[in-house]
Amino acid sequence: MDNLLATLKAAAETTRLRLLALCAHGELTVTELTQILGQSQPRVSRHLKLLCDAGLLDRFREGTFAFYRLAEKGASAELARVLVDAIPDSDPTLTLDLERLEAIKRGRSETAAAYFRENAARWHEIRSLHVAEDEVEAALLRLFPAGGPDGKAVEELLDIGTGTGRMLEVLGPRVQRAVGVDQSREMLAVARTTLEEAGLRHCHVRQADMYQLPFPSGSFDAAVIHQVLHFTESPAEVVAEAARVLRPGGRLLVVDFAPHTLETLREEHAHRRLGFADQEVAGWCRQSGLSCGPVAHLPGDPLTVSIWPATRLAGAPAAVSQPALSHSGATS
Fold first, then answer.
1. Residue 275 and residue 259 in contact, taking contact as beta carbons nearer than 8 Å
2. Of 8, 62, 160, 268, which sits 20 to 30 A from 48 (CA to CA)?
3. What is the mean pLDDT of the chain?
């Protein structure tokens, strides 16, 4: 009872209720919240700290930025949602706050659109070489049924190297919660816009190193590594780290190119590897305590996209990857 009263006390202030309501609509920085509320940054930061200490908000860092969103786990997470739902939709202060929030989201969308305009040639050039993306996504959905491979609902999904957030957009409707990680802040900004426009509030993104994921072992029911491994210096380490965070019976889907000879992708698009053989990927999976399933090959011209499914074996020890001295961030 004391904890409940302390949590209610933390929320029992006008500005803090406004912050809860805003953070229920997505991930926001202190600067964005300050712009919406029209209050000083020290004051807003003080209110945010109280809400985080009470477990009503989650805080995470991304470089020099700190993002806030409504708490998803913990004793106070459900109460946070109840409090937000209790705020009248007709409240004039909340209405104005949400109008300002929409203006900020429009700004994000414009920034994301500009980024794509500047980089569109890079994606279009590679896409023209392999099978259509809708065919790849359809194959992924067949391997990732709504009920999960064992008929049970997939609760938590991890998208490693999330890039623009497309995999979260495709697979998000089939899971209860999803997290995408990437090292590129520019890509994460695009991904946040993608998720907001798709209305996938149960999906979010984090800045993180794929070689050292910031999650405990056995945290996820499923993981996907989509068009990432060909950028990496040590793909085996990425697979091992993905296996570590999977629960027993958890599903991993690796999507990448079959072996090819297009040196231009290495020279002009920073690809470190020119595709992967089935036995190579299967070897990494076995070393990481994963059991491989039948591989799907989707031929293109001239690139073939392969999908390697694997399942975390019960009782298999979690492989801890040993990162090399330097890794470059990769995005899908």
1. yes
2. 160
3. 87
Assigned token pair, 282: 């299967």
DSSP 43-71: HHHHHHHHHHHTTSEEEEEETTEEEEEE-
Q: Give the chain's radius of gyration (CA, Å).
A: 21
Burial of residue 33, with CB atoms counted within 10 A of its CB: 0-12 exposed, 13-18 middle, 19 or more buried: buried
Burial of 59: CB neighbours in 10 Å, binned 0-12, 13-18, 19+: middle
Measure the CA–CA gap between 170 and 236, rounded to whole angstroms.
Answer: 25
pLDDT at 116 over 80: no
| Cα atoms in the 13 Å half-sphere on the side-chain side of 153 | 8
The Cα 177–Cα 192 span in angstroms is 15
Amino acid at 130: H
What is the pTM for the complete model shown?
Answer: 0.75
Whether the Cβ atoms of residue 182 and residue 159 lie closer than 8 Å to each other: no
Residue 292 tokens read as 């491989």
Dihedral angle sign, alpha carbons of residues 298, 259, 133, 130:
negative
Phi first, then psi, for residue 134 (nearest 5°) are -65, -30
**Dihedral Cα 226, 240, 183, 175, nearest 10 deg:** 50
